Amino acid sequence: MNQTCDFLVIGSGIAGLCYALQASRYGSVIMITKKRDSESNTNHAQGGIACVLDPKDSFESHIEDTLNTGKGLSNPESVRILIEEGPSRIKELIDWGVKFSRSAGKSNPYGLHLGKEGGHSINRIVHANDLTGREVEEKLLLRAKEMPRIRILEHHCAIDLVTGYHLSGKNDQTCYGAYVLDSISRKIFPVRSRITFLATGGAGRVYLHTTNPEIATGDGIALAYRAGAEIANMEFIQFHPTTLFHENAESFLISEALRGYGAVLRNASGKEFMNKYHPMKSLAPRDAVARAIDNEMKISGEPCVFLDIRHASPAQTRKFFPHIYKTCRNFGIDITKDLIPVVPAAHYLCGGIKVDLWGKTCIKNLYACGEVSCTGVHGANRLASNSLLEALVYSRRAAEDSVSAIKKISLAPLSSIPSWDDSGTTDNEEWILLSHNMQEIQSVMWDYVGIVRSNLRLHRALRRIQLLEKEIDNFYKRTKITMPLLELRNMVTTARLIVCSALKRKESRGLHYTTDYPEQNDRYWKKDTIITRTASS
Questions:
Q1: How distant, in Å, are the alpha carbons of 254, 353, 471, 534 from that of 465?
Q2: Residue 107: which pLDDT band, with cuts at 50, 70 and 90?
Q3: 107: Cβ contacts below 8 Å, ≥ 6 apart
Q4: Closest CA to 348 of 315, 376, 312, 381
Q5: Does the CA dihedral 458-463-464-466 come out positive or negative?
Q6: Which of 134, 194, 205, 286 is catalytic?
Q7: CA proximity to 350, closest of 395, 296, 402, 386
Q8: How deeply is 104 buried, as exposed, middle or buried, from its count of CB atoms within 10 A (0-12, 13-18, 19+)?
Q9: Contact (CB, 8 A) for 197 and 16
Q10: What is the pLDDT of residues 317-363, one digit of tens each?
């Protein structure tokens, strides 16, 4: 099967869709997505998009909040670009039909209701009630389906990027497209492209407890790593402090916006405790809140803590948080009357594929954006609701840069790309091996590479992950490819990158806290942790 395009987009969240919409004005686009086209981390984003719109707010204030949260690792230039270009991207979304929550009498240009979240010094969170990601995703997807130059291939997954190595056997750092699996027909074929754009989201499923959907298995990071890209700051995993503690809730996220609205954290005895840990109390940045909850649970021996919003107007709470209210009611919890049991869960990856200010990786013709990338914005910890903003701003910049570059890029000749060779492989019915290996990865990462780490735990995790990686690689080489096998392969690679990065950083900074080095070390100030395949494999 011969598939050819100007722009290959891997992933269908906000970054991929925004890029595709811009790029399709200048060439053909093939977008591949593992599940249905609307399934992405974007679709699960409740809180909103941080943006300076209020006349009382300022770019400098948002920049300062972001840099403070990033703990000395954020790139100031990346941050300034993010924040200064933000208002234009919000206007663009409104023009594309995205309906954000409004409030009469608001002085910002669009009359939007602006929420407040942890780490922000002022209300600046643009949102669509508590389902912002879904609203944005739906409108962008509708628009993309109207574009004749965009083809969306559902139930397709990239196996590996096509590089110069596949064409000539030489270490040519150029991307020519990707080998793709159709998970329905199980056919494998190359997609040739001038530009390849990775927007596969994060890797929360590497952990046992996560807010992420099933598709968040670190695919883009593993793809880029195998192709020779630089992977940066993988040790910084943001654990969302408040996910619903219920056996059937699957770590349902209780948005940080609820704390911005006035909810306070209480321990099992009903006492407010965040005043012991941070001057911003329950509105402290996520790393501080997650560690505080982790410590309170260890002190009490209880499996959770509680959010309390009972003091607020029930009608207003139901109005601003209809999805959270309805979901909790389904589990027998009325958030206007009851304490909400919560625990931390893996939420957001602050590292990823290292890119420049235009989304370019060190591999020629390969771009990345969104949670899969490391733009330098988040540093050692992400400021709440900067993630969707980053996807909007940097996908637009990547599109602008690649549209200019594409005029000089030729497609690789079809004859030069080898067909996928699966000779010697068989269908293996022992899928229990896959599920067991996946559970083992998740348990190891949760137990040893979680909110609080140590050298002992990290080395123990590395030994187990390396053993699993060998087992999975052997299974991969002798088994016909399926989607679960690809996900497992990518998960174990991503897990190893997280562990290796954590071992390299001999300090505690932001989201990376280790009992062996409990303080920040100036030697690591503004210093990224970089791993490449040649250096670490």
A1: 31, 21, 10, 19
A2: confident
A3: 54, 55
A4: 381
A5: positive
A6: 286
A7: 386
A8: exposed
A9: yes
A10: 999 999 999 999 999 999 999 999 999 999 999 999 999 999 999 99
Q: Is 286 a catalytic residue?
A: yes
Helix, coil or strand: residue 31: strand
Whether 474 contacts 427, CB under 8 Å: no
Q: What is the pTM of this model?
A: 0.90
Q: Determine how many CB atoms are found less than 10 A away from the CB of residue 280.
A: 16
**Quick one: CA dihedral 255, 256, 261, 265, positive or negative?**
positive
CA 421, 424, 430, 432 torsion: positive or negative? Answer: negative
Quick one: which of 413, 12, 336, 366 has its CA closest to 175? 366
- Which run of H or E residues covers position 180? strand 175-182
In the block, residue with structure tokens 């733009």: 375
Q: In the predicted model, is pLDDT for residue 5 greater than 70?
A: yes
Quote the CA–CA distance of 505 and 235 in Å, as a whole number. 8
- Which spans in 428-482 are helix H? 432-448, 455-478
Alpha carbon distance 89, 105 (integer Å): 23
pLDDT in tens, 460-512: 999 999 999 999 999 999 999 999 999 999 999 999 999 999 999 999 999 99
Amino acid identity at 258:
L
